[in-house]
Write a structure and sequence with these properties.
The chain has helices at about 20-25, 35, 60-70, 75-85, 95-105, 110-120, 130-140, 145-160, 170-175, 185-195, 200-210, 220-230, 235-250, 255-265, 270-280, 290-300, 305-315, 325-335, 340-350, 360-370, 375-385, 395-405, 410-420, 430-440, 445-455, 465-475, 480-490, 500-510, 515-525, 535-545, 550-565, 570-580, 585-595, 605-625. With about 625 residues, the protein is an all-alpha fold. Helix 6 (about 110-120) runs antiparallel to helix 7, helix 14 packs parallel to helix 16 and helix 27 runs antiparallel to helix 28.
Amino acid sequence: MNRASVYSPYQTRKPIFSINFVSTISTLSSSSSLQTIPNSHSTSISNPLYRFLPQTQNPNNIVNIICSALKQQSHHHLSHLQNDLKPLLPHLGGQEISRVLLRFQSEYSSALIFFNWVRTGLGLRLTTQNYCIALHILACSKKFPQAMTLLCELLQLVRDGDAAHKDDIFHSLVVCAEDCNWDPVIFDMLIKAYVKAGMIRDGFICFKKTLEVGFVPSVIACNCLMNGLARLNCLDQCWEVYEDMGRIGIHPSVYTFNILTNVLCKDGDVEKVNAFLDKMEEEGFDPDIVTYNTLISSYCRKGRLGDAFYLYKIMFKRGVMPDLVSYTALMHGLCKQGNVREAHQLFHRMVHRGYYPDIVSYNTLISGYCNEGKLPECKSLLYEMIKNGVYPDDFTCTVVIEGYGKEGKLLSAMNFIVELQKFQVSISHHIYDYLVVALCQENRPFAARSLLERSSQDGYLPDLDIYNKLIESLCQSNNVTEAQVLKAEMVCKNIKPNLITYKALINCLCLINRTVEGESLLKEMVESGLPPDSEICRSLIKGYCKERDVAKAESLLRFFATEFQVFDSESFNELIKIFCEDGDMTKLLELQDRMMKVSFSPNSLTFKYAVHGLWKTTRQEKDNLLLD
């Protein structure tokens, strides 16, 4: 069998139905389109008294007046007409718009001028049927780009749930075909428009409806739909389209087979792939570069390098020269298995055969070397690519920077950024994020702070999470003053501190005996609408207990319980422990009574502290008696 003929983008096969297409779909509609077009925004024009009005004021004459203006081929005339028609405009509804369009079926430019005037000049909401008549006119006039633009606009209105466009577009196009000239290409275009708009499942339904009424889509529309279904991983529907193609006599193209090869590779059954390739050759299609690249990439992803290189050799025998994609896929497969040196040799072979490496080829090797911790080779390749006019992208920079991070060489990573900037390479924000977090994890908050200041000159603005990481790191090393400066900087940049920010600062202040300042931050936090949690309560209570300000600790514990329903037993026990250490059981029991009134309950640790306090008190009394 010979290869399928080359189709133009909008070429369709002749319908296989009888001459009167509309009669075959009479079950879809029992009346003409003009009878089904809603007239929602026009008033009734059946008043018999209208015939006594002058022609220019008679609502029954609105279609004739507009058509007369359009025949003068003047867009400006329509603009002037808008003022003259003001009293009649409430009577211009979907039915009238359709009648005007139908009168200009053979003059697409006048129809389009009127359509756009109604839509933009008058601001009226056009119905689905209005759009469909305009689409038929454009398709019949072979104005395919304008028709596709209008189709996509209509699909967007349907997707947005516009109340005026709830009708089924396929059905509306069929119904409107009863009253105007039409070209079957419009149904082909509708399938492609659905795919273009990302409405793949709707495109599949449209394809099925098209077959039901006896229309044969073009191989290009079928390929477009199958490609969309493959991207969506609707593999069964993909094969269904292919089977329908064979059933109704649509000859596949090499592109059809390439799509299905990709579908089979996704499915993971290599034996089916081989059988399908045999069938492809039986149909008279030789695998092309796309077919081979699809298979090589699939084999490499699955770790079947032997099969991938076997195909690579077969390509030469069949006169299909491997291209950049072929070599890059093989290099990726080799790097994935840790054979980076072999991948680099293949890279040199590719260059020797006249192919110029692109960013993907370089990134494949650089990533491979980084995974093996061979950073000098990475830098060498990076300088080579810049020398050859291929500039590193975000992936290149990220891989190398993270490679330095894995080796614990963050200083080298920061120096590397400076080198890249000399070559005018843009450093993305997430790379700065990575470095700041990595430096904080290594307990080097001042280095992270310095990087933050330098990177701000590149327009880098850290988000709340990055600020919090740095504040937490500063607080962990008890540099709370620097952390507070950073918090003030956040606020100046309209970044609102959250619970994590306040928690880190309050905890640090309490640890270094600055609990009063911690409580001030608590008040600030509450005033900003952030409720505290048990960890903040614990930090403040422990801080005051450590400073022996038990009255303040008790007051704050009651405040947390009554205002925020925070009942932290650890904080309660910390306070109990202080009273037990003092050995004053009377005060201890009084404290317990007060706390139980605000719903604090003692636990096993509370009793342990109380028993210890009683033992301590009893021992002191015995010691005093012995002394006496």
